[in-house]
Amino acid sequence: MYPFFLQRRVIRPLAILLIMALVILAVAFERIAQTKATQGKATQAKAAQAKAAQAKATQAKATLCWQSSMLASVSDYVCTKARLDRYMLPSEARRIAHDLEMRDPNWTEYLPDCPLVAPEDDPMWTNASGVLDRIDCFHPGSVSCFRSTESYRSPSHIEHCQQCCYDAEAKLIKSGSGAGTPDFRCSKKEIDSDHCYYDVMPWTALGWLEYDRSWKPNQGMFSVPGNLKTVETGLYLKKGEFLHFTADSRYRVVWGEEVGAGGLVVSKLESGPEGKFLDFASSVMNTLLGQTTGADKPMAGGPAAALIGYIKLSDGTLTDPFLVGAESVIEIPSDGELVLGINDPSVKDNEGSFAVSIRRCAKDDCHRE
Questions:
Q1: Is the pLDDT of residue 26 over 50?
Q2: At residue 260, does pLDDT exceed 60?
Q3: Alpha-carbon gap, residue 70 to 226, rounded angstroms
Q4: Nearest Cα to 164, choosing from 192, 142, 188, 186?
Q5: Are 311 and 319 in contact (CB under 8 A)?
Q6: Domain locations in the chain?
Q7: What fold does the segment set 222-365 form as a domain?
């Protein structure tokens, strides 16, 4: 005789009730998940609508600002054909964006990267924040903007310029209405109708939110922390390509000890991306301290703590290092990803970082006057 709770007439109804309860729970959980998913999509949709509305409002304000500036006879500076072209339709602006992508898909990679901090006294950059530049119209939210002093040629042989805008703390603005945008057409002339047609008019027709998808704001110089041996850049290259590196001299790395008279440590060693060759006393002291010496550096014959580069091959190995320094042009030795690092075998105690602009260039157009 089985106990009461194990008898068949009791087990079967209990089993049915248990199954029904599990089914009800499963349905309830599924409905909860569907409700959360629906709410999440609704929240995302509202956020997107709010962002679009904000962008539209910002653009409307900027367009009025721009039109009022033209009525104030600034139009000759802004665009020689402004009165004819200022009402460019969005469809025409999108066609221009598509044509640029087809004609010269990687044109922005041939431009220098923006400094992470406003380049106030750098001859490579010209202040473009004057009254006639109307950054309050074209880059609302920025405090200052700079344009590359030189223009740069892509494989299509068209001259392009970089533009970078900064906030009240002089930090680079990387997105939003205040961000600087590259110029597909530019020249050293004060008035350039090509720049008007290919850069200014599409902005007025599309608004910054859509415009920035094709004329993408630069994300700034690549940062190389002094306490990391290598940093992958995510830039994949082909053998025989050329890169032009320009480091920001304002960024330095502290990496060792400097020895004075009597063998006393007088200060911390620091250097810019060009690195530093040690005298005998400092070399011995840093050897004893486990810091940079000669043969144990990744690039044995190169200056200590200099900015160096490698190519990461498809099997994960690195090529021999090459010196990047403060400025250099490098012909890529192998297919692979660009990796940057510090010419220092012991980086864990280092402080600071380097910031470097990386741009593609044609062999005969890498060095700028």
A1: yes
A2: no
A3: 49
A4: 142
A5: yes
A6: 57-214, 222-365
A7: Jelly Rolls (2.60.120)
Of the chain, the end-to-end C-alpha distance in Å amounts to 104
pLDDT for res 354? 96
Radius of gyration in angstroms for the set of CA atoms belonging to the chain, rounded to a whole number: 29
Q: What is the pLDDT of residues 194-236, one digit of tens each?
A: 888 899 888 888 888 899 999 999 999 999 999 999 999 999 9
How many whole angstroms separate alpha carbon 82 and alpha carbon 204?
11
Cα distances from 340 to residues 2, 38, 321, 350, in angstroms, run: 77, 45, 9, 16
Q: pTM of the full predicted structure?
A: 0.72
Q: What is the pLDDT of residues 279-316, one digit of tens each?
A: 544 554 555 444 544 556 899 888 989 999 999 999 99
